[in-house]
Each structure stands twice: as structure tokens, then as C-alpha cells.
């Protein structure tokens, strides 16, 4: 089963980038869109979102086989961790309920200031349970609709799960969403990239963190370069040379599901995607 994720979830800073619990609401502004992420306990992290990748991938695999996608998804803890590339250990088993709880209790609110103004609020999971070694969950209905919609989902390189840092995970999703397989790739001004990444305003080392990632080149399938343009610095994502000459995850999914193919990048828009609580 190939990992995949809706474009919508790659477009905005919906998940915390640090593993430490974050209870302070986070607010980000992108153009005329304001994103507020809040939880009474702790906000869902980019590692918690791996469970959404599994859920979406499972739904797409069932649709491809012409199975009726179920409302609730069930899997053993062992098989779930194996899909995520995590060691099936006591510690990993114990972390699953907390991750599921964060996904169920984190509320995201999107507010557009355009005419007419619009606000949408949602959570990631409607419900979840654990019985013995089996996890059962139901993703929010709006997310299920997005996951099964034509051309709404992009394949991910399985090596994404091995990325250790929250920022590098976020950058990979942005590269996959905007750069795709375009030979010229995609670039972001660092100030805009910071807002897209969801890095806290008080973190003043963002340029240094980006420079270190450029030196390490951790993103699977992409090469990063920093380019100076006047008074601004841009981070450029380009497909790695090897990506076009190997049996990439993109091609495998495109061959299975035509709706998973690349399309021209678009801005995050609440008017084109039906969202409901």
C-alpha cells in the first residue's frame, strides 16, 4: 500500500512541528486566510499526522480494488506501526492512544477575509478506540470525502516516515505539494516559507535551520538550494536527478489511480473543498 495524503493537508501549517506538548493556540496568516490550531490538551503533531496518512492510504487502496471504503478503519497496532516504519515496541504501542487523542481533540479553524467572508472549523478524527491489539478509528467525514475525491491526493515517498525533524517533514510536504515532479521545481521566499511552515514567531533561528537542512539534504526525492534575489533569500526545491530514473512512488500511484496525478499548484482554498465539522 502506497502512502498518500490530500493536497489540502500539505498546504497549511496544521500540525505542530515539535514533539513536546503544545497547548497554546497557534495562529497563522496566509494571504486572506487565517488558520487557528487549538486543543484543550495538546495539539496534534506532524508525527501524529502519520496516522492520517495511513487512513487515507487505506481508503485509496480499497477504492482502487473497488471495495466499498468503510466508515471505520481497523488495523492491528503491529501492522499500523509497520506501515509507518516504526519499531513495534511497548513504547510505540503506548504512544498510539495519545496520538489518536490529539488528532480527535485538535480543532482547526479557517477564516477567510475575502468577500464573502467564510469560517470553517473541524477536527481530524470523529472517534477512535483500542481493543486489545486492534485500533479502530473514523476520520472526519469531510476528510474522508476529500481523500476519495478525484485528483485530491498525492503519493508520498515512504522514506518520509524516516525524517526525524518536524521542519524537514513540513518542508517535504510543501515540496511534494508545490514542486511535484516539475523539472524547475518550486521556490519560496524565506519569510513566506516561515509562515507556510508554521514555525513559531519567537524562533529566530529559522534561516539558520534552513541553511543546515540545505547542507544535509534530507528530503527524499528533492534537492534544496538557497538563492539570493536582491534583498530576499529563497529556498528552491528541485526533483533529485535519481527521482526521474527510478521506479518512484509517484509513478506507482499514478499508474494505479489517475486521480492521484499532478496538477497545477493552487492556493489553499476553503471554497473549493467542502469542509464540515
Describe the structure.
By secondary structure, the protein is of the alpha+beta class. The chain is built from 9 helices and 12 strands. It has helices at 7-11, 50-64, 77-83, 90-105, 141-148, 166-179, 190-197, 206-216, 249-256, and strands spanning 4-6, 26-30, 33-38, 73-76, 107-112, 118-122, 125-131, 134-139, 153-155, 186-189, 222-229, 232-239. Strand 2 and strand 3 (33-38) form a beta hairpin. It is globular, with a radius of gyration of 18 Å. Mean pLDDT is 84; it is low at 242-277.
Question: Helices, strands, pairings?
Answer:
Elements: E1 4-6, H1 7-11, E2 26-30, E3 33-38, H2 50-64, E4 73-76, H3 77-83, H4 90-105, E5 107-112, E6 118-122, E7 125-131, E8 134-139, H5 141-148, E9 153-155, H6 166-179, E10 186-189, H7 190-197, H8 206-216, E11 222-229, E12 232-239, H9 249-256
Antiparallel strand pairs: 1-9, 2-3, 3-5, 4-8, 5-6, 7-8, 10-12, 11-12
Q: Which sequence of strands runs across the widest sheet?
A: 2-3-5-6
What's the end-to-end separation, in Å?
Answer: 29 Å
Low-confidence spans: pLDDT under 50, at least 5 residues?
242-277
Strand content: 15-25%
Strand tally is 12
Largest sheet: 4 strands, antiparallel
Helix content percent band:
25-40%
Helix/strand structural class = alpha+beta
Order of helices and strands: EHEEHEHHEEEEHEHEHHEEH
Work out the radius of gyration: 18 Å
- Determine the number of helices (DSSP H or I, runs of at least 4 residues): 9
Amino acid at each position: 500500500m502506497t502512502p498518500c495524503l490530500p493536497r489540502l493537508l500539505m498546504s497549511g501549517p496544521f500540525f505542530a512541528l515539535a514533539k513536546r506538548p503544545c497547548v497554546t493556540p497557534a495562529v497563522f496568516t496566509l494571504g486572506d486566510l487565517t488558520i487557528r490550531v487549538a486543543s484543550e490538551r495538546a495539539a496534534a503533531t506532524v508525527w501524529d499526522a502519520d496516522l492520517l496518512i495511513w487512513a487515507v492510504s487505506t481508503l485509496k487502496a480499497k477504492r482502487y480494488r473497488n471495495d466499498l471504503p468503510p466508515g471505520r478503519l481497523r488495523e492491528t497496532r503491529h501492522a499500523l506501526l509497520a506501515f509507518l516504519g516504526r519499531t513495534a515496541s511497548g513504547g510505540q504501542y503506548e504512544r498510539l492512544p495519545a496520538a489518536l487523542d490529539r488528532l480527535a481533540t485538535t480543532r482547526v479553524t479557517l477564516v477567510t477575509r475575502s468577500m464573502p467572508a467564510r469560517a470553517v472549523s473541524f477536527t481530524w478524527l470523529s472517534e477512535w478506540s483500542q481493543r486489545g491489539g486492534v485500533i479502530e478509528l473514523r476520520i472526519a467525514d469531510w476528510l474522508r470525502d476529500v481523500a476519495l475525491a478525484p485528483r485530491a491526493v498525492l503519493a508520498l515517498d515512504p522514506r518520509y516516515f524516516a525524517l526525524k525533524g518536524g521542519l524537514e517533514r513540513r518542508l517535504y510536504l510543501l515540496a511534494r505539494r508545490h514542486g511535484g515532479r516539475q523539472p524547475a521545481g518550486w521556490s519560496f521566499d524565506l519569510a513566506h516559507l516561515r509562515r507556510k511552515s508554521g514555525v513559531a514567531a519567537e524562533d529566530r533561528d529559522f534561516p539558520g535551520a534552513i541553511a543546515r537542512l540545505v547542507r544535509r539534504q534530507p528530503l527524499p526525492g528533492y534537492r534544496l538550494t538557497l538563492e539570493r534575489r536582491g534583498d530576499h533569500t529563497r529556498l528552491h526545491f528541485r526533483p533529485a536527478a535519481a527521482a526521474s530514473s527510478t521506479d518512484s512512488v509517484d509513478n506507482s500511484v499514478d499508474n494505479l489511480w489517475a486521480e492521484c496525478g499532478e496538477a497545477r499548484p493552487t492556493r489553499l482554498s476553503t471554497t473549493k473543498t467542502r469542509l464540515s465539522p
